[in-house]
Amino acid sequence: MSISNSYQFNPTAIAPLIAGLLIGLLGLLVLIREKRSVVSVAFFLLTSSAMLWLLSYLGIYCAVRAETAYQWGKIQNLGVVFIPSFLYFFSLALVKKFRRSLHFAVGSLAVSAVFFCVVLFSDAFVSGVYRYPWGYYARYGRAALFFLGFFFITLVSALHLLWTDYRLAPTPRQRKRLKVLIIAFSTGYLASIDYVPAMGMQVYPLGFLPVLGFIALAAYAIWRYHLIDITPEFAAKKIVDTMPDMLIVLDEEGTVRLVNPAAERFFGKPGWQFLGKPLESLEKNLFTAAHRATLNAKGSLSDYEIMVKRGHEERVINVSAGVMRDDGGMQVAYVLIARDVTEHQRAEEALLQKTAELAKTDAERNQLKLFALAASHDLRSPLQKIISYAELLRLKAGPTLPPEAEETLALLLKSAGRMSDLINALLRLSMVSVKEGVFEPVDLSHSVKDVMDDLELRIRNTQTDIQVGRLPVVYADKALMYELFQNLISNAIKFHPKGVAPQIRIKGSVRNGMAEITVKDNGVGFDPKDAAKLFKPFERLDARFEGSGMGLAICQKIVERHHGTISAGSKPGEGSVFTITLPQQIQNPS
């Protein structure tokens, strides 16, 4: 009889056919992705037997004659009898007890092999077929009852293994993984409905659906949680593949036998271009390092630096080399581990250079500090004598001096006073540059309040109106912040038109980690083209007002010490606005 007369298309076979193909594909994908780990191999065997079971439905359902369906029923159960053993294998691999329980695993496989022989050589397992509306279906004999008992025991044992491991799982990740697997196994057990029609009851076999669900959930658990068996071989390969250092293994003759991806990336060549070639022909300096290791009494070499040309650039490579010996102590290979330390050396050199520059800066700062103190002392001493002698002259000869002489003496004392103020201002400017202040959280509102308290009498006498908004907290030198606002507020009070009460508005904000403070007044203002001169020492834009011309220069120096900026905007007769930006975070003074 021809094949065309033995089979006819039956739509009922489509669903188990698709389920079987999907299960087989999942098993193969997991095997490939998990690099043939114990778990993935056990899963592949399980999916293969399940695929054979489901694909056999195509022959049974499409068979025209009972004899043909019977043969397919026997083929189908040749795969079914191994499902319990592979399921048990899979559960042992999942809980990492495969080697410990190997005798149980071998025993279950032996029982499956016995049933395989019974199916193949007798009709005690598959005794015939039933004819149902959906097609033929295998009829179980007496031996199948014993198989069902064996199947039940292995299913319960597998679930017990997972449940025990779940209760003892030390991490949430392991518990989640085992929870998914327990759900998967519980779902798969619903496939036992397919044994009902094998006993003569007309119930449509939907077992392929829970089996597909079981396989899908198990594959997800493996895929999601990477149930790779961490063997020494697996760990060694992963370490070699992922290590950032170059690894090159040579045989006794200096021929390259292994290179890792780091070496391939450094030399810009695929590994196969190295293999089987003498290292000396590829990189002479590396070969020299290996040769030195063999000459060493210990057969090793550490921190040996060589120069390797990479393109048009020479790189500094730190090499450690050693001799690999077999169990008998015979030399079999060389191992080279190399690291590119070029950038590290450059960073060290830059650090040393920076350290030297900082030391030089500190020395210059200390010299400048000593110079400022000495200069102020040397200038103050004769100036103080001039002032003292002038005061003495006024005291003793004041009544007898002519008016012109008395006026000259007054101008002398006034100029000497201005000179003293100028020396003090110069000293403050110098000290701002060299002073090693303590940086700490400073509430600028408190700094402004301290200045206003000290200037209270002057503020009252000039009827100055000062309004202060909310100001931020910055990491700064508290004393310098006080001096900054003292200069700005004093200038705002001083530089105002006669007959007009000074008005000062101070406010702040924070943006992108920078504090911004504005000090606005209604003073005489200045020409915008003179803004660049404003912060230079000794600059006095308006000769009507006395001063040393150092206040804003000191302000700028203070702000620069805090890695900030200060700027001014104005128009003649319209007041001035000073804008200060300071970083909120800790900044070391330069």
Question: What this model shows, in words?
Answer:
The protein is α+β, with helices and mostly antiparallel strands and 590 residues long. It folds into four domains: 227 residues, Rhopdopsin 7-helix transmembrane proteins, CATH 1.20.1070.10; 98 residues, Beta-Lactamase; 92 residues; 153 residues, Histidine kinase-like ATPase, C-terminal domain (Heat Shock Protein 90, 2-Layer Sandwich), CATH 3.30.565. It is built from 20 helices and 14 strands. Strand 1 and strand 2 form a beta hairpin. Helix 4 runs antiparallel to helix 6 and helix 5 packs antiparallel against helix 6. The mean pLDDT is 78.
* Poorly predicted segments: none
Question: What kind of sheet is the major sheet?
Answer: 5 strands, antiparallel
The name of the CATH superfamily of the largest domain reads Rhodopsin 7-helix transmembrane proteins
* Helicity, as a percent range: 55-70%
What best-fitting shape do the alpha-carbon axes yield?
elongated
In the CATH hierarchy, what is the architecture of the largest domain at level 2?
Answer: Up-down Bundle
CA radius of gyration: 46 Å
Q: Counting H and I runs of at least 4 residues, what is the number of helices? A: 20
The CATH topology of the largest domain corresponds to Rhopdopsin 7-helix transmembrane proteins
Secondary-structure content class: alpha+beta
Overall number of strands: 14
Spatial ordering of strands, largest sheet: 4-3-7-6-5
CATH top level of the largest domain is: Mainly Alpha
Beta-strand percentage range:
15-25%
**Terminus-to-terminus distance:** 100 Å
> How many discrete structural domains?
4
Overall average pLDDT = 78
